[in-house]
Amino acid sequence: MKKKMTLTESLTISSMLFGLFFGAGNLIFPAYLGQAAGRHVWLALLGFLITGVGMPLLAIAALGITKSTGLFDLSSRVGKKFALFFTCLLYLSIGPFFAIPRCFTVPFETGISSLLPGTLNKQLGLFLFTLIFFALMLFFSLRPGRIMDWIGKFLTPMFLIVFFTIMITALLHPTGSASGKALGAYAKSPLLTGVLAGYNTLDVLAGLAFGIIVVSSIQAFGVTEPDQIAKETVKTGILTSILMAIIYGITSLAGATSRPLGIADNGGTILANIAHHYFPGFGAILFALMIFIACLKTAIGLITACAETFNGLFPKYSYNKWAIFFSVFALAVANIGLDAIISISTPFLMLLYPLAISLIIMALTGNFCHFEKSDCQIITAVTFICALGDFFKALPSQPAFLVKIYSNLPLYRDGLGWLVPFLIAYVILAIRRLIKSNKSK
After folding, report:
1. Which residue range is the domain that position 353 belongs to?
2. How does the protein associate with the membrane (predicted)?
3. Is the same domain home to 368 and 295?
4. How far is CA 123 from CA 97, 102, 334, in A?
5. How does DSSP classify residue 198?
6. Quick one: average pLDDT of 214-242?
7. Percent of the chain that is helix, strand, coil (3-state, to 5)
8. Same domain for 172 and 59?
9. How many folded domains does the chain comprise?
10. What is the pLDDT of residue 70?
11. Which of 309, 335, 361 is the last residue before a domain boundary?
């Protein structure tokens, strides 16, 4: 029996996990944050790191510390029915419903479309590109045993080479300074705006979803002792988070110093402008390659995680059947366009994130607070009911009556209407359990 992994093995899994996490959104959102935050870039980045790095790390740690085999196992602390509901909803959201289609459309909208002939119909171009992306994604995902090689050893290093080529050049020869006036919400509350921007990376949800891949990869290196698997899982998460934080910092600073190249309304345009400026002639190709690799490796990981999870929950259908079904479904959704995908996905993220965060916190502190299943159910119910308010508010067509009711919640205007009720329920039940525990000694 092998007791622990070598440093090389840990770095390989960390590279794979980073590759799974780091899609195009992880580049686009910090680039926009940097340019919009201006002189407040470091404060906004701190907020972004809380939800974009800190919470995903806690998600991985929660799986490791509780020795859970995956999200269903972790969420079963609340109840089997909730575990099935939450696991299916989360994987479908970061899988074929929203995140995977976004992986299809982001590289096309931000990089590939500018390289196509002007005579080609854009919708036709999107369809042809998504077919190619679909074929590559399905080819890799139907070979889940090699995902560590595909992503950890090849795609992630390729991405990092292109990324650092562009970004280090931009930082060494900046066109401006990170001292400009903050724009929009970043002018009033840069820290909170950064926190909410971190939601868009989907990484808290991905941290829970990718746990099954991390655990199986660690076991593939011969680690079978549950305690050691837990330690290796946490160590892998820490190494991955450090790399993600460094790249977020570089991308945000590059965005903050890029204002002379033009103020843009999205990070894709900002990064494209940077690539075009520093690499005239082939900057567009370099940028398109970077975005394409970033999205492909994330999409492969998402399909693999979704198919493995649903095969475990519903073994009647094989892993390959689930992978093919999810890939075809994502292909169809991708062709409705990026703007439509984002507008539909936002309300669901506002509902899922609070549930994920509350689950992670309960898992990490459950043993100390001596939570029982009934406590977890109460906390989850309070979180879900209050998070519905943020869900209703984010809908394209808001139900005015319900929004008015929920508007009385603290922080509701900031998209965090669930937070204070969750904290109140959590603290009351934790104190109650600690008092009972001390009395029984």
Report:
1. 341-441
2. Multi-pass membrane protein
3. no
4. 20, 15, 11
5. H
6. 81
7. 80, 0, 20
8. yes
9. 2
10. 80
11. 335
407/309 same-domain check: no
Query: Which of 278, 302, 335 is the last residue in one of the domains?
Result: 335
Joined tokens for residue 217: 């990869």
Annotate 97-113 with b (16+ C-beta within 10 A) or e (fewer).
Answer: bbbbbbbbbbbbbbbbe
Residue pLDDT, tens place only, 407-419: 888 988 877 889 9
Q: Return the CATH number at 143.
A: 1.20.1740.10
CA atoms within 13 A of residue 370's CA, in its CB half-sphere: 10
Tens of pLDDT, residues 169-179: 999 998 888 88
Name the token pair of 145.
């045993």
The encoded tokens of residue 280 equal: 């005239």
Residue tagged 């919009």 (tokens): 36
Amino acid at 25: G
Is 402 buried (19+), middle (13-18) or exposed (0-12) by CB count in 10 A?
middle
Q: Which two tokens stand for residue 212?
A: 């099954």
Predicted confidence band of residue 201 (pLDDT cuts 50, 70, 90) = confident
Q: Which two tokens stand for residue 279?
A: 């690499």
- Residue ranges of alpha helices (H) inside 38-115 are 41-49, 55-65, 71-75, 80-92, 99-107
Residue pair 109/341 in contact (Cβ under 8 Å)? The answer is no
46-55 pLDDT per residue, tens: 999 998 888 8
CA distance 343 to 334: 13
Residue 114 burial by CB count (10 A; 0-12/13-18/19+): exposed, middle or buried?
middle
For 142-282, where are the alpha helices, taking DSSP H only?
147, 156-172, 185-188, 190-199, 203-209, 211-220, 226-256, 267-278
Residue at token pair 């998504």: 130
14 within a domain of the structure (yes/no) = yes
Tokens for 415? 């998209």
